[in-house]
Amino acid sequence: MNQTFAALQLGPAKRAAARLAAGAQTGSGSCRTQSYATEAKKKNPYSHTIKLPQTEFPLRADAARREKQFRHRCTDALYEWQLKNNRGPQFILHDGPPYANGDLHIGHFMNKVLKDIINRYQVMQGKRVVYIPGFDGHGLPIEQKALETLKGRDRDSLDPMEIRKLARNFALKAVARQTESFKEYAVMGDWTHPYMTLDPSYEANQLEIFKAMVEQGYIYRQNKPVYWSPSSRTALAEAELEYNEKHVSTSVYVKMQLTDESVARIGGAGKVSALVWTTTPWTLPANRAIAVHPDLEYVLIQVAENSESGSAGYQLL
User: I need a surface site. Which of 93, 177, 205, 217 has the fewest CB within 10 A?
Assistant: First the structure.
């Protein structure tokens, strides 16, 4: 009686243990154990009332493994199939190549996915899509990345051919990594035969086009101000410049002496200088000329002999 009362105060698992203990003391433990196990194996009386579909599909998607099983069919195989089976006109999407200077980022993803959407839409329209991916293997960004791999070496000691070889090897490795990443984006295209700007055949075609442009008068030599990087020892494009927004420039007034030809054209005599004001004094060493406006009036003045400006006897424009 005491054992039964104690079992009622315990949880299901402990009550079962108490029953086994009571059965052992009364000599009927085996019978009680069999009865309890049979109750646990009884079929749920409500399972047959639930109408669930019978399917061989797994309960979990397991996308990391299964996605690779479908990727080839949806990309490379589809690209070859539509070229052979579509009967519509040819549609060519020229690929602006990314720099082969590192791994991909969200900008690459957006660029390639948008192009892939266009191509797949054209395939659905029955057209034969030709999409040859490209890679840009030239330029300062690649050289900078390649030079960063040098450890313990003096970069200035490298000759141009060494730098080109280093940059080429770096670009080829970057192309291989980027290609695999683009394939994981499921972008459809001819990834087996991409074009690369560092291929000798591509460079030869560029020279042929340049030659044709020279013969037709599109190429000429003329002076033009460009941005120069002392550290990289190369010209920079506007997009490559980075400004310090917190920098405050010191403005200066500077007199720039005119040539004799310029003095004669303005009707001056002797030493004549143009007075200029600039907020970018670091550009003065590279000055080649002064721009004047054809519709503005300028004044030519004579500096007094007792002037403390150091310009006595000069004429200032």
Answer: 217
Q: What is the pTM of this model?
A: 0.60
What are 53's two structure tokens?
């579909």
Closest CA relative to residue 274, chosen from 307, 298, 308: 298
Q: Rounded to an integer, what distance in angstroms lies between the CA atom of residue 79 and that of residue 306?
A: 85
Q: What phi-psi label fits residue 43: left (phi over 0), alpha (psi between -120 and 50 degrees) or beta?
A: beta
Q: What are phi and psi of 316, to 5 degrees?
A: -110, 135
Q: How far apart are CA 244 and CA 197, in angstroms?
A: 33
- The rounded Cα 41 to chain-centroid distance in angstroms is 61
Cβ(103)–Cβ(182) below 8 Å: no
Q: What is the pLDDT of residues 111-157, one digit of tens each?
A: 999 999 999 999 999 999 999 999 999 888 898 888 888 876 777 77
Phi, psi angles (nearest 5°) of residue 207: -65, -35
Q: CA nearest 141: which of 165, 109, 170?
A: 170
104 neighbors 178 (Cβ within 8 angstroms): yes
